[in-house]
Amino acid sequence: MKDIQNQRDYRNIPIDKVGIKNLQYPITVLDRKNGFQHTVASINMYVDLPHKYKGTHMSRFVEMLHLFRPEVSLKKISVILEEMKKHLNAASAQIEVTFPYFIEKQSPVSNSSGLMDYQCAFLGTSDPTGKTDLVSVVMVPISSVCPCSKEISDGGAHNQRGLVSLSTRFHKFIWIEDMIELVESSASCEVYSVLKRVDEKHVTEKGFSNPKFVEDIVRDIAKKLKKDSNITWFSVNAENFESIHNHSAYASITDHNS
């Protein structure tokens, strides 16, 4: 049968990225407590397309994943990228694997168990020289209490739930759990899926005794990451969904010195 994708294109315009988006696919992620965890990812895969080709072979992207099933994990990203370049005759390749990750978490006083879900991602690229770049991403819900509100109020202070996104590059493998715990320990208080009344009292008082702006949160996270010799680069941002304003508060730090 005629291969339309491989036919010559005469517009002389290369394409930076061509591929598939939002493919739902089962993957295996390393789990610090249980060894591994099965989850379902949303996957984007791209390669470059030289000016002379009319198109790429979209079905081959899915075939690449099937070859590695169920080992579509962080440690396999580099191999998948090289196979994408090989089978699609491309100079560069990119993959984005976004997935929910579940951690069983106990409430602070009653020790009631519940599952917390965190959105995570593995981002990988391979350039024409074969250099691979890997980035791990965690998105962590947190709680914050406003220091200014506490200072100026006769009683109480406004608090809100926030979301911290942390992206890291590293020398050696890092656990998702380690990055999540680093973020949670930098907030006014952690967020839980199950809280009894004694737990609610605890987290309310803990947050009130540990007020933080979004600026404090990202700075505290950055300070910890800068002390970790395994982290070669990071980008962190925090967004508070303000309880008394019709807007969010936001802060971001990217490490440009690594």
Provide an overview of this structure.
It is built from 6 helices and 9 strands. 26% of the residues are buried. Helix 1 (58-68) runs antiparallel to helix 2 (77-87). Strand 1 (15-31) and strand 2 form a beta hairpin. The chain is 24% helix and 41% strand. By secondary structure, the protein is of the alpha+beta class. Strands 1, 2, 3, 4, 5, 6, 7, 8 and 9 form a 9-stranded antiparallel β-sheet that branches. The termini are far apart.
Descriptive keywords:
258 residues, Urate Oxidase, 6 helices, 9 strands, 24% helix, elongated
What fraction of residues sit in β-strands? 35-45%
The secondary-structure class comes to alpha+beta
The rounded distance between the terminal residues' Cα atoms is 51 Å
- Overall morphology: elongated
CATH topology of the largest domain, what is it called? Urate Oxidase
Poorly predicted regions = none
Order of helices and strands: EEHHEEEHEHEHHEE
Mean pLDDT: 91
Write down the CATH class of the largest domain. Answer: Alpha Beta
Biggest sheet architecture: 9 strands, antiparallel
CATH-derived architecture of the largest domain: Roll
Number of helices: 6
The count of strands amounts to 9
Radius of gyration: 22 Å
Q: Mind telling me the CATH superfamily name of the largest domain?
A: Urate Oxidase
- Number of domain units: 2
The helix content is: 10-25%
